[in-house]
Structures are given as structure tokens and as C-alpha cells.
């Protein structure tokens, strides 16, 4: 194609203007970086043996609904899935923003196509949105044994995105055991984790400090009743059992069928598949938790 000199000058002027606008946008984005960003989305990516979830924050729910913001979140989750956590023996492996430094990604959106660094992509989206946009945190979890990895997203505007997420692994002792029932229960347990908000897997994992603090609070409440010491002690122990039922996953009543707790559910599942089944690890995340709004 042949361009006239005037047409070429017009194109050069246009490119220069676009470049200047992008620079100004980046400067404006950096000025907004100190503003509170407690809204946003969780993005989850998964393969057969691993799942990763990231939290991308913005200032308003309006930006969280933007297609470019959502594409960026999904791209970051896919990148988090590639982070090597092979040295992590168990549990959720934290993936902070530092793990993404120097890494490149393609947001795969018409208005933000092409490869760029993670930080440049976040800065450009912040400039487009006119808000503070930041990658807050991420976690990855891998399967270490035979079994299934289950995930669940609540308040999900589209596949892979949501406001509350859970990841849960079920480990099966017999590697020849069928996994159909395990996958079904795994999906239900991932939903349970989102709804019931457990903090610990078993009673043994509850710290002595947490138990002592709770016992102290319960004792103070019981003493206010004016009952004798022996009755107070029984009240405290009964309420402490209730505390474990609230915060310990294995002791919680199953949200799909509250006639059984999670421990009994797994016992029944083990009988069904003919092999012991246990929860390996679990994780629950919610947008903005722990942030001052």
C-alpha cells in the first residue's frame, strides 16, 4: 500500500498521540496506587492435578464487571497455575505479587492484545479503568496422592471468576478405586467450604492459643449466669464442642445433608468406594477479606 506524505504524517501524529495518552494514563494510574482497592474478583485456573486462584482488586464493583478487568484476572490465574510449587509438600502454596515480577502474559483482549509484563498489564488496565488496580495475592494447591481436586466459585459472573472460591483435595488410598463418587462428594465439599467457612481441617490443628482464648471467653459468659462452678465447667465444655463444630471442617454439619457431619460423610464415602478417603487440604478465599473498606 502506498501512502502520501500527508497521510504518513497523519499516521505518525496519531501514533505519537496514542503513545502520549498511554504515558499519561500510566502516570495517572501510579497516582491512584495509594487508594484503597477492596473490590474485585477471584480468578481460578485448574488442571487435573493442580489448581490456582488469584485475587485482583479494584476500587468499585463497576470496574470488576468490566470485560478487560475480567480478562486480566483470568490471564493471571492461568499464569499462577504455571508457578512451580513442587517443593511444597502439603497445603496451599502462597503466590504473592513478587512471583509475577518479570513474567509476561497476553491478556487476550482486543483493547489490550499482545505480550507484556504482568506489572505493565496491571498498570495499563488501571489507566484504562481510572482506578487503582492491584494483584493482591494468590495460592496454588497440587495433588500429592491419588484422588480428585475439586473447586467451587460463588457469585460467579462467568466460568473461572467469582467473589468467593474454594479448593479441596480428596485423597484415596487404593489407586484402583473408582473416582465417580469421590468427584461428586468433592464438588459438594468444595461448595460446603464456601458456605460453612471452616478455619481448620481437624480439632488437632486448632492451636492451643485459639482454644484457650475461646475457653476464656466462654467461661466469662458462663460465669455471668451466676450458676455454681461445676455447672459453669459443663457449660464451657458444651460450648467449646459447639465452637469446634463451627470452625473445624471435619466436625461441621454437612451443608447438603445436615443429618451427618463431614467426618461421617467421608466414612460413608470410604465404604462406598471400598477404600479410605480423606481430605488432603482445603482453601477458602473471599474478595476483600481482611481489607478495610
From TrEMBL:
Location(s), subcellular: Mitochondrion
SUPFAM superfamilies (UniProt xref): Elongation factor Ts (EF-Ts), dimerisation domain (SSF54713)
Source organism superkingdom: Eukaryota
GO CC terms in record: mitochondrion
Keyword Cell cycle: no
GO molecular function: translation elongation factor activity
Purpose of the protein: Associates with the EF-Tu.GDP complex and induces the exchange of GDP to GTP. It remains bound to the aminoacyl-tRNA.EF-Tu.GTP complex up to the GTP hydrolysis stage on the ribosome.
Name of the featured protein: Elongation factor Ts, mitochondrial
Gene designation per UniProt: EFTS
Amino acid at each position: 500500500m502506498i501512502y502520501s506524505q500527508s497521510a504518513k504524517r497523519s499516521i505518525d501524529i496519531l501514533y505519537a498521540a496514542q503513545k502520549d495518552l498511554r504515558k499519561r494514563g500510566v502516570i495517572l494510574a501510579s497516582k491512584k496506587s495509594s487508594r484503597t482497592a477492596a473490590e474485585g474478583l477471584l480468578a481460578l485456573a485448574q488442571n487435573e492435578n493442580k489448581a490456582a486462584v488469584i485475587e485482583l482488586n479494584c476500587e468499585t464493583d463497576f470496574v470488576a464487571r468490566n470485560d478487560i478487568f475480567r480478562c486480566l484476572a483470568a490471564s493471571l490465574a492461568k499464569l499462577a497455575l504455571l508457578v512451580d510449587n513442587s517443593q511444597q509438600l502439603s497445603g496451599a502454596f502462597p503466590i504473592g505479587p513478587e512471583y509475577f515480577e518479570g513474567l509476561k502474559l497476553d491478556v487476550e483482549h482486543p483493547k489490550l492484545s499482545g505480550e507484556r509484563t504482568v506489572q505493565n498489564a496491571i498498570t495499563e488496565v488501571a489507566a484504562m479503568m481510572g482506578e487503582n488496580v492491584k494483584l493482591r495475592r494468590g495460592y496454588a494447591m497440587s495433588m500429592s496422592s491419588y484422588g480428585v481436586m475439586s473447586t467451587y466459585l460463588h457469585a460467579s459472573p462467568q466460568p473461572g471468576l467469582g467473589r468467593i472460591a474454594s479448593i479441596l483435595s480428596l485423597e484415596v488410598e487404593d489407586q484402583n478405586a473408582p473416582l465417580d463418587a469421590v468427584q461428586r462428594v468433592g464438588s459438594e465439599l468444595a461448595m460446603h467450604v464456601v458456605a460453612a467457612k471452616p478455619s481448620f481441617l481437624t480439632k488437632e490443628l486448632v492451636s492451643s492459643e485459639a482454644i484457650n482464648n475461646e475457653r476464656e471467653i466462654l467461661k466469662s459468659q458462663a460465669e455471668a449466669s451466676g450458676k455454681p462452678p461445676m455447672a459453669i465447667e459443663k457449660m464451657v465444655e458444651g460450648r467449646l464442642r459447639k465452637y469446634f463444630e463451627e470452625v473445624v471442617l471435619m466436625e461441621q454439619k454437612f451443608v447438603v445433608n445436615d443429618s451427618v457431619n463431614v467426618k461421617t460423610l467421608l466414612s460413608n464415602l470410604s465404604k462406598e468406594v471400598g477404600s479410605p478417603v480423606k481430605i488432603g487440604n482445603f482453601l477458602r478465599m473471599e474478595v476483600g477479606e481482611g481489607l478495610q473498606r
